[in-house]
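About this split. The held-out portion is used to measure sequence recovery: a designer receives only the structure tokens and must propose an amino acid at every position. Recovery is the fraction of positions where the proposal matches the reference. Here is one held-out target exactly as it appears in the evaluation file.
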């Protein structure tokens, strides 16, 4: 059985008079407005929003430090507003305070605005002919049909009463089309493919040092997007781009790697078997770690992993927007290792939190936090970590040693310091990072602690207490305060910093 096109219904609805003119809404920040107070129908904003605006709890979130916050969904005349919710804390009297987020206002005041002219079933029927697969879909292959009424703002902030429909299409080319249908006119406002995080990608990874492994066999599948028979190294959270050895950024390079599903293979480069596969997979691991441990994304934008930068580039970098990895040469294998990718992503985390500047003692802290993140990612994925930075990418061990840096004894590399008394302003930030790396190692290996709890504590300090030009001492006090917030031993933190020459940091 097939679903026929509903052009007659659509034509009728388009030609029908609308129940009200479409107005342009405004978007305002709630941070500076009065608190959200309780009433019988939800949480009504006392301020600059339309009468009939409400906020209702959609999610209660308990943070790692034990505090509880809430996500509040915006409603107008009992219809949810698509894409608009705020976060808030709850005061002792039940009021919602510390609101952060945007709200939409100045909606149409037409009394018929929130009354649809078409039914949910009619909206679903309209949406089906625009499926990405075909104009006639086998009914037997359709399941999980959903339709929900929203207030929807288009790209020009014009508000519409709209149904958002979706359904799942089974078969060799699975799909989940989403469609926004105007509930007054039946016009399709937007549509997209919703099956964007299907983990089906396979292929090789690793290098001559780690050994070759297979995604889909040795590790889970790679999270890619499939459209028909074509796959893309792209999902909701991570995108991987092959720079093909170019050294500049251009719009035509701003595209994810494209390949025939499900397997991606590339020619081995400098002893590595699948830099693209590794970048996409490790990016997902890093995102999941931050999401699972902190209930937050590591960055405020999608993780963009750029591989094959220039020829023989012996480095990796965060440039404020994305992560870029060279293919190495004599000293290194391609730099797409789990700890290195987490390191670069976490430079972005630091920039978007404490903003530690990349020089002096704050620069050493910045570098060390990224090294900690690399160890945390290994612990998250493998259940253990070796406290050796970059060991998987070191190719020339005669020149470099087994790893780039050693957290248990930073002086092993011949240039890093492991005690604050040895700090001088001429030290490179990679070498002064040893002070905080050693403190982290000491804390993580203390009874009652592990890599996860230690990283959570340093991360909380980064989020709450460190500032752009924090000194070693300032930063250590921040970690002590973070331990207090998380109900962890402050004495253990003090002992870890005392071991690297930082005593009584909060005095």
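Reference sequence for scoring:
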């Amino acid at each position: 059985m097939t679903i026929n096109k509903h052009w007659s219904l659509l034509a009728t609805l388009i030609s029908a008079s609308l129940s009200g003119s479409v107005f342009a809404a405004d978007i305002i920040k709630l941070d500076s407005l009065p608190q959200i107070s309780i009433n019988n129908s939800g949480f009504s904003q006392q301020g600059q929003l339309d009468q009939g605006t409400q906020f209702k709890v959609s999610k209660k979130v308990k943070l790692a430090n034990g505090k509880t916050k809430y996500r509040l969904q915006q409603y107008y005349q009992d219809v949810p507003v698509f894409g608009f919710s705020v976060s808030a804390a709850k005061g002792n009297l039940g009021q919602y305070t510390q609101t952060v987020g945007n709200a939409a206002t100045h909606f149409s005041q037409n009394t018929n605005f929130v009354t649809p002219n078409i039914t949910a079933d009619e909206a679903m029927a309209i949406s089906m002919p625009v499926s990405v697969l075909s104009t006639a879909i086998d009914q037997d292959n359709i399941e999980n049909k959903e339709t929900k009424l929203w207030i929807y703002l288009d790209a020009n902030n014009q508000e519409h009463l709209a149904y958002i429909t979706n359904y799942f299409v089974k078969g060799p080319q699975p799909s989940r089309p989403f469609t926004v249908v105007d509930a007054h006119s039946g016009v399709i406002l937007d549509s997209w493919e919703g099956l964007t995080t299907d983990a089906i990608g396979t292929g090789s990874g690793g290098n001559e040092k780690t050994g070759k492994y297979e995604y889909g066999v040795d590790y889970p599948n790679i999270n890619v997007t499939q459209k028909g028979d074509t796959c893309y190294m792209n999902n909701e959270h991570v995108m991987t781009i092959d720079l093909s050895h170019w050294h500049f950024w251009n719009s035509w390079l701003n595209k994810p790697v494209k390949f025939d599903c499900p397997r991606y293979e590339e020619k081995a480069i400098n002893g590595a078997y699948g830099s693209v596969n590794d970048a996409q997979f490790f990016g997902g691991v890093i995102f999941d770690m931050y999401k699972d441990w902190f209930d937050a994304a590591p960055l405020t934008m999608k993780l963009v992993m750029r591989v094959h930068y220039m020829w023989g580039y012996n480095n990796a970098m965060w440039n404020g927007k994305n992560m870029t990895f060279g293919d190495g040469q004599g000293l290194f294998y391609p730099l797409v290792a789990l700890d290195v990718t987490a390191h670069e992503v976490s430079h972005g985390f630091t920039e978007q939190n404490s903003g530690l500047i990349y020089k002096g003692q704050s620069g050493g802290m910045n570098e060390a936090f990224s090294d900690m993140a690399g160890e945390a990612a290994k612990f998250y994925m493998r259940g253990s970590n070796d406290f050796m930075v970059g060991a998987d990418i070191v190719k020339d061990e005669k020149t470099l040693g087994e790893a780039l840096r050693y957290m248990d004894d930073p002086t092993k590399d011949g240039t890093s310091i492991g005690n604050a008394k040895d700090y001088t302003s001429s030290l490179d930030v990679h070498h002064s990072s040893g002070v905080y790396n050693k403190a982290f190692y000491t804390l993580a290996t203390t009874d009652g602690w592990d890599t996860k709890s230690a990283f959570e504590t340093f991360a909380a300090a980064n989020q709450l207490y460190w500032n752009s030009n924090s000194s070693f001492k300032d930063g250590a006090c921040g970690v002590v305060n973070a331990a207090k917030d998380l109900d962890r031993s402050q004495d253990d933190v003090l002992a870890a910093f005392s071991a690297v020459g930082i005593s009584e940091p909060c005095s």
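Annotator remark: The longest strand covers residues 79-90.
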